[in-house]
Fold:
Amino acid sequence: MGWFKRLSEGIQTSTTQKKEAPDGLWQQCRGCGKTNTVKELSNNYLKCPDCNHHVRIGSFDYFNLLFDGRYKELFKSIFSYNFLDFEDVKSYDERLESANEKTTLNDALTVAIGKIKRKPIIIAAMDFAFIGGSMGSVVGEKISQAVDYAIKNKTPLMIISKSGGARMMESAFSLMQMAKTSVKLAELSREGIPYFSFLTDPTTGGVTASFAMLGDLNFAEPNALIGFAGPRVIKETIKKDLPEGFQRSEFLLEHGFLDFIVDRQELKDKIGDLLHFFSKS
Amino acid sequence: MVFLEFEEPIEKLYGQLEKIMDVADQGEIDVQDKISEIESKIRNKRKEIYAGLNGWQKVQLSRHPERPYTLYYINQICKSFTEIHGDRYFGDDKAIVGGLGKIDGQSVVILGHQKGVNTKMRQYRNFGMANPEGYRKALRLMKLAEKFDLPVICLIDTPGAFPGIEAEERGQAEAIARNLVEMAQLKVPIICYIIGEGASGGAIGIGLGDRVYMLEFTWYSVISPESCSSILWRNWDHKAEAAEQLKLTSEDMLGFGLIDGVISEPNGGAHSNPEKMAKLLKKQIKKDIAELSEVTVKKRIDTRLKKYNSMGRFKTK
Structure:
């Protein structure tokens, strides 16, 4: 027997009396399912205060988290367009347009120059919200120009990867961005300028198989999905369940492909330390 | 002979030819004229069909079960060949083969994806899908070539790098990325030929070079038409449409300036006359080696870097 008894059946509150919670005030954690306020999250480096799940964030979130105050966006005026007239259920133009509307970004990578712990650094950060963070010509070109900028100004470069891989709608052109970015990183390496590759959830496909694995140091956020093939594809190929923790940061660290894993809370200090370590002055 | 769907008219002509041959075997009627007539019909029909193939049909041809694979070409092209094995870290990948060859007196390091010629061998070769140790073996061979100042020849024919648990554990992505950055600055000429399928990272992992060619009926793309269909249309039924959209043929790729040339295939495709195909390939390889050997190391690498850096299409505002 319960202590209370329901007198009338069904929900009695009328629709007009219901209150809507405004969007963007609350966010449910993808790790533990707990609902946090956005304020709680931003006070905790955009991590869940309960389970430490690192929320997927965008390029500008990282810039704000990492740079000492002001920074300047570079190569803002490069845009993608549907040069192959690619059309599946939607045209590539439509996809670009809706991604732009949703995110207000030009493409899946934004480059900025600023300082961390008083040391200059160029950060090229990817946005998963823009067509799955996919790499097309614009991502490749911005990385190429960021490398030139790094060489010219003798400034270390960090790329924050967050991508589903190459952008199908640019077909072979997107594939060639793997070559293009690798070729540019070879140039940067010859100049002896440090390149940090920071891998975040998720980093897969052509991005992992090019610049994301080529850092002088490769490091990642905790529990980020990192791999060449996506887990679904692997599962379908081998027709077996995948082991727990497969393709997560900790798995890659264990297998020798990451230098370390860094919590978002310690990220700025860590990069600051590295910049001071590699700085000759 | 295996006929593809679009080759049905040719298959019919072959049927007629066979019947006449049977008559000829009985030896009572002279059918030589009739045979010549049908043979010429076959040639013409082939030319006609092959001149108008669409993207998906070319993809099917690139996967033709009788199509020659890397080891066939190596044995045809090289007077002597010593296969070398292993990446020196983990093992020997059967999906990428390579070794030391002599092409008319010129020593080369030659390597490529290898598919199997029958069911058992297809499994042994993992369908031409390499694991990390394959890419690392390829890199070891290239470094050997660099040390002894020999040109590197890469033959590409893969449905993709293998998506498996062990491949991930051993760093499939790192292996491909490492090859790209090393091939970018290798001091000796690298020349790549797509002889069948050029699928994505698995292909470009041994496909960055001073020159890249495609045989006429091959494809090169960021994703296979099947996978593209399954991701964008959410089922496999749109593979032909995906093949058109991806613009993955040798003709398209040359038009985009992403490759340096197309090597014509014999009438009816490489498998119709593999010996002739091997001769054509050999001729091109010799020409490329001769031309690239004239250039200084610095110039060659600078040109290579500039070539790849110029790839991509975008607008500026």
